[in-house]
Amino acid sequence: MRTQVAIIGAGPSGLLLGQLLHKAGVDNIILERQTGDYVLGRIRAGILEQVTVDLMREAGVSERMDKEGIVHHSIELVFGGARHPIDVHGLTGGKVVTAYGQTELTHDLMDARKAAGLATVYEADNVRLHGFDGTNPQVTYEKDGRTHALDCDFIAGCDGFHGVSRATVKDRVTEYEKVYPFGWLGLLSDTPPVSPHAIVYGNSEHGFSLCSMRSMTRSRYYVQVPLTDKVEDWSDDRFWAELKRRVDPELSEKIVTGASIEKSIAPLRSFVAEPLRFGRLFLAGDAGHIVPPTGAKGLNLAATDVKYLSGAFIDYFKERSNAGIDTYSERCLKRIWKAERFSWWMTTLMHRFPGDEFGRKMQEAELDYLVKSKALSTAVAENYVGLPL
Ligand code: RFL
Ligand code: PHB
After folding, report:
1. Which domain holds residue 333?
2. Which bin fits 355, alpha (ψ -120 to 50), beta or left (φ > 0)?
3. Angle at which helices 298-319 and 12-23 cross, to 10°
4. Of these residues, 100, 141, 180, 201, which one is catalytic?
5. pLDDT truncated to tens, each residue of the chain (389 aa)?
6. Is the distance from the beta carbon of residue 101 to the nearest atom of ligand 2 less than 6 Å?
7. Which atom of ligand 1 lies closest to the CA of 47?
8. Exposure of 353 by Cβ count < 10 A (0-12 exposed, 13-18 middle, 19+ buried)?
9. Single pTM value for the model
10. Fewer CB within a 10 Å sphere, N or C end of the chain?
11. How many domains does the chain have?
């Protein structure tokens, strides 16, 4: 088998890259370790920056997102028992974010890929990357008890934090990492969101909370939990009671509780791999970097990588230009580090760090400063909607 670009991973990065390349007439095959249903079962991001929305449109897969996505003009911070809106739209000269679940976005991309008849090999085992330092890279994998080989011009490692792509070059990567001493317990429920107009981030003496949404009838909530907690420790009732005591009394009254349709715990981590290019192998999305979800940046950073990478491959195949390929890593890392900074800062500002009473006082001072200072509120708003490319 032969293709122009072998894509490892059918998460949002791999699928979006495949679609953009296909639109430009560049051939690609995706190899995914899991089944499609498994990929769709992972409940993750919900907030899209304009860059991501624009890229979905460019890929020709925005019809449902344009209809069902919910545009948000503001976010809210809850602390000291009170709510403080940040007018993101007003402070950024009209920019917004869109609530549209990663599951839906992935679904739309999978449907488009299927409709276009593009090859995705699900349940591809033991994927191995070869020859990417030369001009004839190859990917091998096992499927249905047989070993297959896929020859290509380039390999795109879109296989997430635990994938094989970065692991293959681990001796050549410099890794920067920070692990946080807590996780997020997330709950999805078919209940109306607490606020259809804002994403609400809470800092309370009991820890961080987040009220978000997927639609007018589906909500997503999170609470900070110790890393030692297990999902089984958290009945729905316990979750709702904990969430309610972490927000202000008025909001607490408004929370509509109901049975969970998904509940999971995610650890929080900041991570960057440098560089993102190794000969003809390129890392994109979570394969190259992780942010704690507090800034809603992970999926959006993945989309930016894909924008640069698709452009680089298209220029190579259509114009015989190496310029995009040669600058890919550097261009991506510039934006990645800024999003890392914002996500780390938001995480530090909004969570309880056990035993750090000085840090707690710094949070109080900074939150008070933030809601009174147009300068700092503007800085938050412009990072939240996404820094310019
Ligand atoms: P993914 O989604 O992990 O997909 C990688 C795919 O590669 C496959 N794979 C392999 N395939 C073949 N061979 C192998 N050896 C393989 N190893 C792995 C995997 O099965 C998988 O299908 O990475 P991708 O595509 O780069 O996408 C990244 C996003 O998923 C991630 O950044 C976001 O979900 C982060 N994130 C958020 N980002 C936002 O922009 N806005 C948000 O509101 C937001 N909220 C979140 C989040 C992440 C969260 N978690 C789970 C920490 C909320 C949470 C709770
Ligand atoms: C979500 O809706 O899942 C979500 C929203 C905002 C975040 C993280 C996750 O910062």
Report:
1. 5-47+102-177+269-346
2. left
3. 30
4. 201
5. 999 999 999 999 999 999 999 999 999 999 999 999 999 988 888 999 999 999 999 999 999 999 999 999 999 999 999 999 999 999 999 999 999 999 999 999 999 999 999 999 999 999 999 999 999 999 999 999 999 999 999 999 999 999 999 999 999 999 999 999 999 999 999 999 998 888 999 999 999 999 999 999 999 999 999 999 999 999 999 999 999 999 999 999 999 999 999 999 999 999 999 999 999 999 999 999 999 999 999 999 999 999 999 999 999 999 999 999 999 999 999 999 999 999 999 999 999 999 999 999 999 999 999 999 999 999 999 999 999 88
6. no
7. 43
8. middle
9. 0.97
10. C
11. 1
CA of 90 to the centre of ligand 1 (A): 31
What CATH number should be reported for the domain holding residue 141?
3.50.50.60
190 within a domain of the structure (yes/no): no
Whose C-alpha lies nearest to ligand 1, atom 9? 159
The end-to-end CA distance of the chain, in Å, is 36
CA–CA distance, 137 with 155 (Å, rounded to integer): 7
Query: Is 201 considered catalytic here?
Result: yes
Q: What is 57-79 written as a DSSP string?
A: HHTT--HHHHHH-EEE-EEEEEE
115 part of a folded domain: yes
Residue 197 C-alpha to ligand 1 middle, in angstroms? 26
Classify residue 167: in a domain, yes or no. Answer: yes
* Ligand 1 atom nearest to CA at 14: 25
Burial of 217 (0-12, 13-18, 19+ CB in 10 A): exposed
- Rounded to the nearest whole angstrom, what is the distance from the C-alpha of residue 158 to the centroid of ligand 2? 21
d(CA 47, ligand 2 centre) in Å = 6
